[in-house]
Each structure stands twice: as structure tokens, then as C-alpha cells.
Amino acid sequence: MRIILIGPPGAGKGTQCQRLVNFLQVPHLSTGEMLRDAIKKKTAEGKEASSFMENGQLVPDQLVLGLVTRRLKDQDCRKGCLLDGFPRTINQAEMLDDLLERQAMSVDGVIELSVPQEELVRRMLARKREDDSPEVFAQRIESFKRQTAPLLEYYELKGKLEHVDGLGSADDIFDRVRQAIRAFRRAKR
Length: 189
Ligand code: B4P
Prior knowledge:
By secondary structure, the protein is an alpha/beta fold. It has helices spanning 13-24, 31-40, 44-54, 61-72, 90-102, 117-127, 134-148, 150-157, 170-188, and strands at residues 2-6, 28-30, 81-84, 109-114, 161-165.
């Protein structure tokens, strides 16, 4: 299966994907992780991405698409994958649709993890990642509302969206995520 997780920064996309990897037996593609890795390795892409990430902005679509395109060509992605934090703009979603279509593939389902802003801030303060200062985090929430939230309607109109309440223990949320996966499986039959 090919599943996308969408949610504001700190919603727990990465946390749920770690559990889903075992459940679905497909690789986890996190664009946030790919970008942090590129920055650590000081690649040209990492150098370009760092100033955007430091300011809580989305990195340019073409840069992210390049990373995802390369990864999706790997053999382990043939049977499916978890897309964590990608797409994050309508443009990225359209580019992903084109990319998958050329390989006779498609997205099976999209999970929206929703978490109230006060809880996101609480989690961010507990996590202490480099791009988690309160100012940068506020900017990332803004980017989510402006650039990523419109994707929910994009996938809703395609009949591919399931909403999941992202409040509670990670295990309880995972139960809800599995229910969403069951709905995608039923729709596929
Ligand atoms: P990401 O790495 O995707 O970061 P995120 O949205 O903050 O994380 P996530 O929702 O996965 O939260 P997590 O599980 O860690 O992106 C970072 C940056 O990269 C972006 O701001 C952007 O600049 C750039 N980027 C990435 N993709 C891009 C794209 N496609 N286009 C352009 N730019 C892109 O959970 C957060 C914390 O909460 C953790 O500490 C966790 O332990 C805790 N937590 C999780 N579940 C919990 C629960 N149920 N209860 C309590 N705490 C919980």
C-alpha cells in the first residue's frame, strides 16, 4: 500500500510511521528525515534546504521532489511505502500523482492526523529539535495552515482521506490509524 500522512508539525506523523512500518511491511519515507540527513552530510541539497528549515519555511518543491523521486525508484518501494510529510503543497501532490502514474502506481489512502495547537506546542517544547524554537515552530504552523492544509480538500475530493484524532497515547492513536488502513483496504477491493 502507498499511504500518505498529513498533519501539522509535531502531530506525530513520524511516531505513527515507525509503528506502521512493521504493520504494513513497507519502507518509511520521511522528507523531514531526508532533509536533515542531507544537511548533516553537507550535500548541495542540504546546503540549499538548511536556510528554509532554520526559518520554519517549506523547502522548494523541486528540491524535495528530487529526493522523493530518487527514493521511490528503489526496489523496496515497488510494493508500497509510507509518505511522511510529503506532499506538503498542492504542487507537490500533483507532481507525486504524475510520478506515480508514470510507474502505473497510485496513492491508496491519506491519513490526516489532527492535534490542537496547544498540544503541538507542548510536544515541541518536550522534543527540543533544532528547528523547534518557539518562533520557528510558530512559522511552521503558519506554513502548514497556508500551504499544506489545502491538501486535505484535494484528497477528500478524490475520496482518499481518513481523519484520525491525534490526541491520546501513541498506541491508542495507532489503533485509530489501523482502522483507517482497514478502510483503505476495503475501498481497494
Ligand atoms: P518533519 O520532519 O516532517 O517534522 P514534523 O512535522 O515536526 O514531525 P512529526 O509530525 O513527524 O512529529 P513527530 O512524530 O516527530 O519536517 C521538518 C521540516 O522539514 C519542515 O518544517 C520543512 O521545513 C521541511 N520539510 C519536510 N518535508 C517537506 C516537504 N515535503 N516540502 C517542503 N519542506 C519539507 O512527533 C513530535 C513529538 O511529539 C515527538 O517528540 C514525539 O515523541 C511526540 N509525540 C508523538 N506522538 C505523541 C503522542 N501521542 N502524545 C504525546 N507526544 C507525542
